[in-house]
Amino acid sequence: MEAYTCGSMPLSIPLEPVDSLTVTTLVDNVFDVFMPDQGPARRLSPSSGGKTLPAATMVDGLVPDQLVAEHGLSLLLTVMRNGMRHQLLFDTGVSPGGMVANMDRLQIDPKDLEAIVCSHGHFDHTTGLDGLIRRTGTTNLPVLLHPDFWNRRRVRIPGRDPREIPTTSRSALQGAGFQIIEERQPSFLFDNSVLVTGEVDRTTDYEPGFPVQDAWHNDHWEPDPLVLDDQAVIVNVRDRGLVVFTGCGHAGIVNIARYALSLTGGSSVYGLFGGFHLNGPLYEPLIDRVCTDLLAMQPRLVVPAHCTGWRAQHAMAAAFGEAYVPDCVGTQFTL
Question: Each residue of 231-288: pLDDT tens digit?
Fold first, then answer.
C-alpha cells in the first residue's frame, strides 16, 4: 500500500481503473433483515448456526446475534486491480464497539485492513476507532484526514443551548500507533487506485454546509459552517466509471459529485454512496434541486445512507427509479 499526495493540482488526476470494487456496509442507521437483494446489492446477515445471545425471556434462553444499526456510517471498500486485493475503511461509526462487532458477525478480520479514511471529524464517523484499537492493539495503519478534522466544535440548534460535540484525540490515535496523514489536497492510495478528494470545491450556490456549527479558535467560538474537512473517496471501476463515497456530504452532494468529475476529468458518475445530509427543516427544501442536479449526471447507482433523511430517500427513490438502492447494515455491493 502506498499513500501519497499530489504536489500541484493537475488538470486531471490520473485515477487508475480497478477491476472490481466491493462495498460492505458495517455501520448505517438502518438494519432490516427482510430487505431484499437488489441489483448489485446483496443483503448479508450472520450465517445460520452463528452466534447467539442469552435472553432469559426466551424459552430456550437464546436469540440470534443480529447485526446492529446506529446513527453513523462505516463502509469497508475492497478493490481488486491486476490480481492485487486491497481493503480500506471509510469512516468507523458512532459507538466504540458497533463497527467491530458487526465485522465479527460478518466474519471480517480487521487485521486485513490497509488504510482508514475519515470523511470528517464528527464523532458519528470516528468513534469506532476506539473499538478497532481495543481489538487490534498497536497498529501502524495510515489514517487519512483533513487538518480541520481535529477542530473542537459545537452545534447551535435554535431554541436549545449550544452543545459541544466529542472531538477525536490526536494523542490517542498516535499512541495507538496510527500513521496520521493530514492533507487538504487530493491524495492516492494503492498505486493510484483510490483517490481521497481532500477539501472539496464549493461551486453550487445553494448547498449551505452546516450553518449551525461553531469551532473553537483563538480562545473563543467562531462560526464554522463550511466543514472544510469534509472529504470524499473516489474509485474508478473499469467499464463502469466513477464511484463516489461521502460520509455526511457536508460539502454538498452535488458539489462533491461535480468535484469528482473535475478532479478526474471523468465524463460521468456511475455511483453515489453515503450520507447526503438532506434531513431536517434546513435541508429538506433543497431536495428537489439536489435530485434535479444529480439526475443531470445520470448516475447508474444511487445509495443514500445515514443522514440523508427519509424525505430525501423517498424523493430519490421516485427520481432515480431502478438506480436507487436503499442501504442497510450488512449490505454488500459488488461492482
Answer: 999 999 999 999 999 999 999 999 999 999 999 998 889 999 999 999 999 999 999 9
As for how many domains the chain has, the answer is 1
CATH number for 48: 3.60.15.10
- pLDDT of 6 higher than 50: no
Q: Is the pLDDT of residue 2 over 80?
A: no
Grid cell listed for 111: 487485521
Count of C-beta atoms within a 10 Å radius of residue 312: 24
- Could you tell me if residue 302 is inside a domain? yes
Mean pLDDT computed over 77-98 = 97
Residues 106 and 46 sit within 8 Å (Cβ to Cβ): yes
46-49 CB contacts, 8 Å cutoff, 24+ apart: 46/105, 46/106, 47/107
Helices (H) and strands (E) in the chain, counts: 6, 22
Q: Which residues pair with 195 in a beta bridge?
A: 188, 234
At 54-71, the pLDDT tens digits run: 999 999 999 888 999 999
- Is 284 among the domain residues? yes
User: pTM for this one?
Assistant: 0.94
Domain of 239, in residue numbers: 17-52+64-334
* Alpha carbons 319 and 295: distance in angstroms, whole number: 8
Q: Are 118 and 145 in contact (CB under 8 A)?
A: yes
